[in-house]
Fold these 2 entries.
Entry 1:
Amino acid sequence: MDQAVIDKLNEILKHEWTGVAQYSQAGFVVSGLWREVYSDMFLDAAKESFGHAKIVGQKISALGGVPTIERNQVKQTDDLYEMLTNGLEFESKAVQLYQEVLSMVDGKNRPLVVLLEEILLEEQEGVDEFTMILKDPSVAAQAKGGSASKAG
Ligand SMILES: [Fe+2]
């Protein structure tokens, strides 16, 4: 298998590990009345990222590569609006990465295309979901009063 494909899959795995940490932390710290809704939603998103990491990591191994244990910088915040916009940004980047690797393997490895397309659909669902939530005026109103985010 092409080393460039393995490298791109590792870039994706790194992104998924970032999602595991970023969404988990959001689920741990989200507070206020809406914690009841969003804590589980973020923790489910962390589980989805781990599920994707598992599939991609196993595939990297099967292709003869070494699955990365690295992750990118996590965006930390205690502000719900920022958590949601971070989520939208994360899912959009995932859609972009899976499309990039798909363009590399399309027409060359049908099973890998099918595997990646299934994940791509879930990433797009994430984009759609966060986009819909962010349309809520009460969520958007928080954009004005939100606290500064901390990089970490
Ligand atoms: Fe994912």
Entry 2:
Amino acid sequence: MEPISICDLFPFSVFNITDGFFSFNTKILKLKKRPSRIVTLSVNYHLVKNGNEIWLLDCGIGSVPTESFKRRKKPTAVPVDLLYHQTGIGIKDLSGIIISHMHEDHIGGFYSLMNREHAFKCPVFIHEKEWIFRKERYSKMTDPLKKIMNFLERHVCLISEDRIKFNNFEVQWTGGHTPGHMIVLLHGKKRTFCYPGDLLPTSSHLRPERIAYAWDRQKYRIEKERLINRALEEKWIIGFSHAPYMKFTILDKSEENGYIVCQTKMQETRNENPS
Ligand SMILES: [Zn+2]
């Protein structure tokens, strides 16, 4: 396994931010004939720096009070509004936010941002299919999520294409996990960084039979296989959305046809000379 350097991603720097840990009971996935078990996951989102531009890929669960997470979330969150204390980056510095899909652990961070909307100037990119799907279910949402929807209504930029490039980002609609789920690619100097959202939330989801929640299970399987094949072929760096310990990886295939994953040290090497 060859080592990965942040220089390979020049001119981008990518930071993984962990927004708390939670325990997850796999019986929620309703997988037939498989015993349920409890696994520990984290909520991760990513910050991308490209010169003076600062982008977020998802924004964590933040402080949103939710039904499904209130019993599971441990109070270790680093919501988006506290980013400043960790990175010196404030809401007003953000150039844009790309949302992979609209589950509460990916948009909950907006709940605390809403209090300082005057400082929030950046667009939020969401796929049109996702937006329409959520809007249709607005009346069934909890009040905090309704507030987030109302906030997003004022800032959302809808993406209608299946694949689009803008501001050095390549965004691809995959569906599967949710109707409008998207993955994000950043093409660096030698390598591509991929944020697969919940299409590949942890390294253990590399196994074909292991699936995350899927709104459309068949589409999820097809898109996940396509993603893994491209990641292997093009040696992508992957930033996971729910891996508690492995934040970045590249994949390799073992002789037994299993996958080898290699944890990288991207954050520690961010100040290396990229030349
Ligand atoms: Zn998620």
